[in-house]
């Protein structure tokens, strides 16, 4: 018993020191009621809140749906598809900082790859991507999808490979081929996994700081910032640490239901197993 306690104590100390204490301290800092009227009084707060909902909603759902579709494409046993899969995974293999900086420089204007190709191939001037709120926000969403979609594609690809071939053979006998096979066989089998992955991805994306900070930089004039970058600017640029924590913690009403639903789905999966 003593050896078991001695083995567990270091892990408990690390958990308390690096998880419970920082999170508890953040909740204490953000627990002052006077912070939230000040936060709401900032006319830009609701812009950041809308940006967060758009970034998370579009980014997560487009990414997961496209990943599910592409996992079927990469399941085909052809050598050139497997070679393409290796290239496709590269953005995910890159560190997030390098990937986002690379995407930023592709859209930097006339010096960027995208506008340069538009000018060279079609003779048109590309837009200034980071001088418009919706173009900048769209750039953040596309960069986020480009970076993280390969990871979830591999998850769904591995899940598809576990589906027994007999199910597809029986569906083929019943005349279910192509898109009908996907609708009536593949998606129902993967539905629970798809939901759990979507919820988990939503939790991660709500706290995504790197993509917005390095792709659009929050521009123009902070109009593409999200709650994570807003909290950073409050804490370090405006020297209002408590208000910065409150800005990030204001996402808790959305986070808590997602966590509860995620735990519920995981428990149901364990019961089914």
Describe the structure.
The chain has 273 residues and is mainly α. The chain folds into 2 domains: 30 residues, no CATH class; 230 residues, Orthogonal Bundle (MetI-like fold). Helix content is 78%, strand content 0%. α2 packs across α13, α8 packs across α10 and α10 packs across α14. The mean pLDDT is 84.
**Binned strand content:** under 5%
Largest sheet: number of strands, sense, barrel closure:
none
Distance between the termini: 32 Å
- Envelope shape: globular
Rg over alpha carbons: 23 Å
Number of domains: 2
Question: What is the CATH domain class of the largest domain?
Answer: Mainly Alpha
| Whole-number mean pLDDT | 84
Q: What would CATH call the homologous superfamily of the largest domain?
A: MetI-like
Order of helices and strands: HHHHHHHHHHHHHH
Helix content bin: over 70%
Question: Helix count, per DSSP?
Answer: 14
Could you tell me the CATH topology label of the largest domain.
Answer: MetI-like fold
Structural class by SSE content: mainly alpha
Number of strands: 0
Poorly predicted segments:
none
Architecture per CATH nomenclature, i.e. the level-2 architecture of the largest domain: Orthogonal Bundle
């Amino acid at each position: 018993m003593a050896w078991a306690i001695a083995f567990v104590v270091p892990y408990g100390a690390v958990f308390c020191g690096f998880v419970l204490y920082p999170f508890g301290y953040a909740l204490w800092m953000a627990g002052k009621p006077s912070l939230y009227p000040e936060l709401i009084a900032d006319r830009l707060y609701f812009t950041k809140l809308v940006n967060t909902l758009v970034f998370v909603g579009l980014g997560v759902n487009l990414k997961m749906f496209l990943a599910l579709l592409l996992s079927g494409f990469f399941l085909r046993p052809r050598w050139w598809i497997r070679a393409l899969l290796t290239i496709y995974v590269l953005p995910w293999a890159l560190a997030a900082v390098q990937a986002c900086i690379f995407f930023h420089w592709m859209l930097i204007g006339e010096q960027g790859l995208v506008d340069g190709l538009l000018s060279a191939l079609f003779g048109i001037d590309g837009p200034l991507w980071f001088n418009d709120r919706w173009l900048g926000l769209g750039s953040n969403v596309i960069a986020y999808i480009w970076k993280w979609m390969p990871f979830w594609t591999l998850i769904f690809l591995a899940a598809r490979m576990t589906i027994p071939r007999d199910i597809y053979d029986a569906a083929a006998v019943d005349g279910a081929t192509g898109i009908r096979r996907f609708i009536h066989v593949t998606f129902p089998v993967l539905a629970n996994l798809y939901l759990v992955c979507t919820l988990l991805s939503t939790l991660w994306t709500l706290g995504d700081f790197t993509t917005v900070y390095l792709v659009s930089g929050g521009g123009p004039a902070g109009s593409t910032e999200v709650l994570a970058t807003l909290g950073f600017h409050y804490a370090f640029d405006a020297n209002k640490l408590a208000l910065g924590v409150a800005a990030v913690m204001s996402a808790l009403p959305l986070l808590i239901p997602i966590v509860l639903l995620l735990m519920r789905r995981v428990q149901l999966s364990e019961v089914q197993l």
